[in-house]
Sequence to fold (434 residues):
Amino acid sequence: MARNRLFLFPLAAALIAALTFGILRPKPMTASVHRVLYYVDPMHPAYRSDKPGTAPDCGMALEPVYAEDASQSLLPSNDATPEAIQIDPAAQQLYGIRLAKVEKDSGQGTIRVFGKVAADQTRVYSVNLGTDGFVKETHDDAVGNYVKKDQHLAIVYSPEFLSVTGGYLSANERTPGGMSAQNENTSVSVTQGAASAQARADRLRNLGMSDSQIAEISTTRRIPENVYVVSPTDGFILSRNISPGLRFERFSNMYTIADLSHVWILAEAFGKDAQAFSPGARARVTLSDTGETFQARVSDVLPEVDPTTRILKPRLELDNPGFKLRPDMLVSVELAISVPPGLTVQSAAIVDSGSSKLAYVQTSVGHFEAREVQTGWRMNDRVQIVNGLREGETVVSAGTFLVDSESRLQMAAKVGSSAGKAVRSMAAMDHPMN
Fold:
C-alpha cells in the first residue's frame, strides 16, 4: 500500500502540470460550428442575405447568423408557403401585433361625432332704429348680461320720433275713445280715425319704438322727449355697439340679443356618417366637461362642405333648460343606427393603399398571408367585410402596418435572393469548370 501511495503522488503532479500548460485543455470548436449561415437586417430580421453588406431600409450593417445561433432566430422554420409572411409569436408580442377573429355583427351600433353649440339663428335679434339720433343713457347692457323682454337698455333722442308721435296723438283724438262729447260720432270719422292711428303706430314701430311705449303714449296722451331702446326677447346680449353720448345712424346695429332657451348643435361628420343624420332622427348630446346628456332632433344637414377636411355639418335642435349649453361649447353627439348584418373586423385590420384593401390572415402559428378584401359600412371601430374573409378566420387587428412593412421586406429579400442565384448561374455558364 505504501508503494502505491508513492506512485500516485508523481501521477497527480503530472496531471496538474498538464492542465496548467494546456496539454489536456479541451479542444477548440471547429471552424464549421462558427460557419455563417446568412446575414440579417438588425432592425428587420426577416431580411436575409447570403453575403455581408448594408440593410436596404435603414443602411445599417448586416449582422451574421452563425450555425449555433440558428435555433434562436426570431423567425419560425420555413415550413409555410413561399407567399406567407413569417413572424414569430415572440416578435409579435415585442412589436405589439395583436390578432382577432372575423365575427358576424348584428348591424346595431352608434355613430359618435363631435359638435359645437350654436345659437338658434331664428331666435337671434338685431336691435336698431330706423332714424338718426344720439344716445343719452344706457342701463345694464354689458355683453353677456341676461335681459328680459321689454327691459330698457338705452334712452335715445331723435327729432323724427317727435313729429310722428304728434300725428299719432292727433289721429287718436278722432277715435271713439279720444273724441270729445260735442263732436258728431259718425261711422266714417271713426273708421278714418282708427286707420290713421294704426298707420302712425306702425310708423313708430318701424322707427324702433316699442309697443309698450306706444301704449304708454296712448294712455298719457303726451309726446315723450325720450325713446326707450328695449330688449325684444328674454335672452343674452351677444354684442353691444353703443355708449352714452354716441351718435347713431339709421339702421346701425346697437345690440345683438339671443334667446338661448332653444339652441342648435352643429355636428361634424364625414360623408357616410352624415348620411345617417336624416331629418327627424333622434340623437343624444353629451357635455364633454360634466357628462350631462340632452335629447336632440336632427333638423337638417347643411349643404356646405369644408373645403379642407371635406366634413359635412348636420344640424340638431334641442331645448336648453337652465342655459347649460352655451354658444361654441364642444359636445359629443351619438346617433343610433341600424345597418344590414354581416362579417366585420376591426377597422385597424384593413390596410388601404388607395387602389386595394388588404387584411393579413393567420394561416398557422407565426405565418400570415395578405388577402385582398372588399369592405362595406363602417360603424364605431369595425368595418364590414363584403368579400375576401370567412367567419372565424384570424386576422391581424393591431400593428397591421408593421406586418405590411415586414411583408414588403420579406418580398424584397426573396426577390434579391432569386436575383443573386440567377446571376451566379449565369456566371457559372460563362466560366464552366474544366
